[in-house]
Specification:
The structure holds 2 protein chains of 2 kinds.
Chain A: E1 9-12, E2 18-23, E3 32-37, E4 44-47, E5 61-66, E6 69-74, E7 83-90, E8 97-99, E9 103-107
Parallel strand pairs in A: 1-9
Antiparallel strand pairs in A: 2-6, 3-4, 3-7, 5-6, 7-8, 7-9
Chain B: E1 3-7, E2 10-12, E3 18-25, E4 34-39, E5 45-51, E6 60-62, E7 70-75, E8 80-85, E9 94-101, E10 108-111, E11 115-119
Parallel strand pairs in B: 2-11
Antiparallel strand pairs in B: 1-3, 3-8, 4-5, 4-9, 5-6, 7-8, 9-10, 9-11
Classes of the chains: A mainly beta, B mainly beta.
Amino acid sequence: SYALTQPPSVSVAPGKTARITCGGDNLETKSVHWYRKKPGQAPVLVIHYETDRPSGIPERFSGSKSGNTATLTISRVEAGDEADYFCQVWASTSDLVVFGGGTKLTVL
Amino acid sequence: EVQLVESGGGLVQPGGSLRLSCVASGFTLSDHYMDWVRQAPGKGLEWVGRIRNKANNHITEYAASVTGRFTISRDDSRNSLYLQMNSVKSEDAAVYYCAREDSGNFVWGYWGQGTLVAVSS
């Protein structure tokens, strides 16, 4: 089955830049989306189709992809950005949708 | 304003059944594919399944982990989505979210707040 790999945790000081990666086989052929999940809250779409930011998401959030690795970048990190971040693709395999294991972003 | 409100969660025994509901407002439900996604305690997000819109004959698709046990249905006239959970297992314990696909592409711009399902004898 298809799998997406994310680092379990990323730590960053306020005002700095956080980068969260997501790797997978043939990821270059798939569209990658990113969700933010805070405890007790619904997931929020922060980036879709690798680079597009939904309305209401700050410009500090950006996405990119190179080869088989997608990256979510959060600039000028704030305390409120602390959350779990998940990448997701339409895998077109027996499990149509695959999420990465999630990355816990800690703001120091 | 788009809103999705889940209900029906609770405690279910292993092997038992439970039916979750999701009431939609602020948009025309019949136009959209709708999904269920869950998060087990301390775990990541897991897609459960989806039901296509009326134009696509309400076709359903499921994750392998729930195929044959869970059934997704909808009543567009009641603005409602359902998840019938049968033969429930301990690993089904999770918060269940309903979510609206943007355009049949497994991208969810709107989510409900979730309903908790606990499994215990």
